[in-house]
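Entry 14. Two folds queued back to back today. First construct below, sequence then structure tokens.
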Amino acid sequence: MAVPATAHGAVPAGETSAPIRYAAVSDCTKDPHNAERCGSWWYRTTYGKRHSLNGVARTTMPVAVSGDGRRLAYIRAKDARLVIRDLDGRTRVSRAKAWPSRSELDVTRVTMSYDGSLVAVNCCWAGFTNHSARVYDAATGALLAKVPGVSVHEDALSLSGDADQILVRTDDDKSGRLSAYDLNGRRTTSVVPPRLIGDNAATAVLNADGHTVAVYVAGRKPKIALYDLDTELVTATFSVPASGQKVERDPGEGRIVEVDTDVRLDWTGDSTLRMVRKVGFKLVRVKVYGIDVATGSVHLQRGYAIAGTTDEAVSGL
């Protein structure tokens, strides 16, 4: 069960149809090499209006926005509960804490599905928590599933295109492991993919077909790779534009990484993806691409900059 609530600072009448472009928290230091959160979170709509988002916890990534920009979710500071908020200000609040351990809250991350129907919360470094990642129903705030062994810093969790499966990449094998779970928390698939997939599956998303995984392959010449969980084969790769991101080799793992870069992938249809790439520190440049995986065509949909912030949750609109 979830607790219904009335939101403060709801979107004014007349702007309820404007989706959220991004949520952010401001930077309060002038140091070009460091950033420090300043004040409350806020969000900006596609109309350009800025609205406050008060009461957000100070965790690794406490806010998520749905890919369609119609909802956001955050961990509430006063009681560590999960709050799901619609554009019109209506909210649902989880019955219990979003994460069971108060001492671990500072390293929790919130993730939301493209359609805003599911919210996931995970935590910590690998091996440093006994708690499972949690997946919530955004329509009610109810807890749906628990997925074990998913850490914020070494692993990755995403929600499928039709929001009925959970894809997890864990770093417990040489090339990582990909596992799919249903909304009861039951593991349905588990494979060790080739290094092209495993090394890059921190940005991966499962298609509604339940077996096609799209992976962003980082590098000076980035790519999208498609991998089939059933056949365990890479079925396609095609190039995507770079956005001026700095590339270096991780000395600990030997992998190519993109510095100050964050990529979000969402399936928007059976054969269409949307890629959102954020690049930069202090001044963040966002570019949004539409991708047709059937043809390999990629086109730039929009681009914009976000200045003076330390953390951003971007929808892709």
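Second construct, same run, same settings:
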Amino acid sequence: MLNHVLSLFFIKLSVGILPWLTLIPLQDTGKTFFRLLIFLSIAFGILGGILQGLIGNIGLMVFIFLDMVVYLAINRLELEKIDLWVLPVFAVGVVVLVLGLGEEGEISMQAFLNLFLSALLLGASLFSMVLGHWYLIRPRLSFRHLVLGCLVFLGLSVLRMGEVGFALFLRGEGSWTKLFYQAGDILFLSRFLWGGLLPIFFLIFAYQCAKIHSNRSTTGILYFTTASVFMGELMAGYLTRMCAMPL
């Protein structure tokens, strides 16, 4: 079970990083920022593949190969619109996630939405954290990028918690008592504390700090919220396997 939870976590993180690269023009942050995030996408994809069995997953191998192509293209070419390169690779990554979902059983809209929002949230958290750090490298970088990054991170955190809450509300079989018994009340409640409530609370402060151009305060909060979201999503993966419902 642990291998599956960690593998899915890393693959979601690998895929989820990519769409947020379209929020910032390449010339504003420089090539190194994009190379770093795409390198992380490749590294997490390979790590997830090793835990899952990379050789047997053709779709994941194709995704990693395309990621490498984009990395080399950014390294060697002057690209004005990164989205024309990144979004098709992201689409392939989403297909890989869906195919993995299909191997576990019937694909439902609820399971897909859970997986998709989880990947986007993980990617947005890492993107925002690295972006906040990048102001130490490029002090003249416009703060509107950081404000937007905090808003995206905050909005996805709220949306993710809303989706999970709605799924629990629609739970058709069993009871909350049985769910607590299966998962363990501390683990179950910690998933919502670390994966939703704490990040949302602190991201409001991060957004306010970004608005007044307090980069160090914003970045410090983003480090904490990213770690908190990672912990919450790992717990969610474990609980999803244990309770047989998307959390």
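Quick look at the second one. The chain has two domains: 1-107, 108-247. The mean pLDDT is 83.
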